[in-house]
Write a structure and sequence with these properties.
Blueprint lengths: L7 H4 L16 E7 L2 E7 L9 E5 L10 H6 L5 E6 L16 H15 L4 E6 L1 H12 L4 E7 L13 H5 L5 H8 L5 H12 L8 H15 L4 H17 L6 H7 L4 E6 L9 H8 L3 E6 L6 H4 L1 H15 L5 H4 L4
Parallel strand pairs: 3-4, 3-5, 5-6, 6-7, 7-8
Antiparallel strand pairs: 1-2, 2-4
Helix pairs in contact: 3-4, 4-10, 6-9, 7-8
Pfam families: Abhydrolase_1
GO molecular function: monoacylglycerol lipase activity
Protein name: Alpha/beta hydrolase
Length: 329
């Protein structure tokens, strides 16, 4: 179903929700009300009718804006939508305060069921990669292909650079960090985030940096910003400790969809060494290694990621039309 056509169950809940949130040329935002959650959805009008749907899920502290560059490159190939997970971007917190990986996965599933868009080409980065893995494992009917960029799957020995993010999960730490950094301005915070997430922060354009600072200022003004960060971080750490059929690696083994894995050699949050384990765990996987990329390859090297996704579609027989063949090239 095209993102411009909505089921009756959603049509009455859709209202403009742009505000001060950045919307790239050709994009639009809408707010979708579902039981217990309200989700902001970023989309691009499909280049033509009949394109297969795609859904993008961001990482911890991110938003649907993280996918804008890739969505643009995939115009003509898929009908793109990106979610702001509950409590992030422009989506308010969930009514039940559930920021677990399962809670976020339930929000994605709830949206796909209500929008009648499945099966979709599902993308996930970092926390969104863990969420997308869970969705693909428990609802294979909703996922056509799976593309995971630095997915946050359990590591026995996490990199030291990832420890501060994990520490946010400890009760009281977010509040303490807020007090200790109360004099930091948005520009300082953005520089820190980019140094952590990019293989080469110098790749960020001045315009991109200004946009990020503006978005950081907006988010810091939200009363639930740090609570959403802390609870989602805690939810991710808790997911790492689950065993049996609910463990993320066990669920990765259950994924039936053809899977593209993207790992960065300079990733400071998800260890590059995990790429081989992931390639073994997902039964129908192919691996794209980017030695110079950090944690957000879809923002650092969107053309390369788009090309790899196009190859995935060609390999799985999903790329059938002449218009789609040239998309993203």
């Amino acid at each position: 179903m095209s993102s411009t056509e909505l089921p009756a169950a959603l049509a009455t809940t859709v209202t403009p929700r742009v505000g001060t949130v950045r919307v790239a040329e050709g994009e639009r935002l809408r707010s979708v009300g579902l039981p217990g959650i309200t989700l902001t959805v970023r989309s691009r009008p499909p280049a033509r009718e009949g394109l297969p749907p795609a859904l993008y899920v961001h990482g911890l502290g991110g938003s649907s804006q993280n996918w804008s560059a890739l969505m643009l490159l995939l115009d003509g190939l898929v009908d793109s939508e990106a979610l702001d997970l509950p409590g992030f971007g422009d989506s308010p917190p969930p009514d039940d305060g559930n920021y677990s990986v399962t809670g976020h996965a339930r929000a994605v599933i709830r949206y796909l069921d209500a929008a009648e868009r499945g099966p979709v080409h599902l993308f996930g980065n970092s926390l969104g990669g863990a969420v997308a893995t869970r969705v693909a494992a428990v609802r294979p009917d909703l996922v056509e292909t799976l593309t995971l960029i630095s997915p946050a799957l359990p590591e026995i020995r996490a990199q030291r650079t990832a420890w501060p993010t994990a520490l946010l999960s400890v009760p009281g730490v977010a509040r303490l960090f807020t007090r200790l950094t109360k004099d930091w301005n948005a520009e300082q915070r953005v520089r820190g985030v980019m140094a952590l997430c990019y293989g080469d922060p110098g790749m960020v354009t001045p315009e991109g940096f200004r946009d990020a600072v503006e978005e950081m200022e907006r988010r810091l003004a939200l009363p639930y910003f740090w609570d959403a960060m802390a609870r989602s971080s805690r939810g991710l750490v808790n997911a790492y400790t689950l065993g049996g059929q609910h463990g993320l690696w066990r669920q990765a083994e259950r994924v039936l969809a053809p899977t593209l894995l993207v790992y960065g050699g300079r990733d400071q949050l998800v260890a590059y060494r995990m790429a081989r384990r992931a390639a073994r765990a997902f039964r129908d996987s192919r691996l794209l290694s980017l030695p110079d990329a950090g944690h957000v390859a879809m923002m650092e090297y969107p053309e390369t990621v788009a090309s790899a996704f196009r190859e995935l579609l060609a390999e799985t027989g999903e790329l059938t039309s002449p218009a789609g063949t040239d998309a993203g090239s």
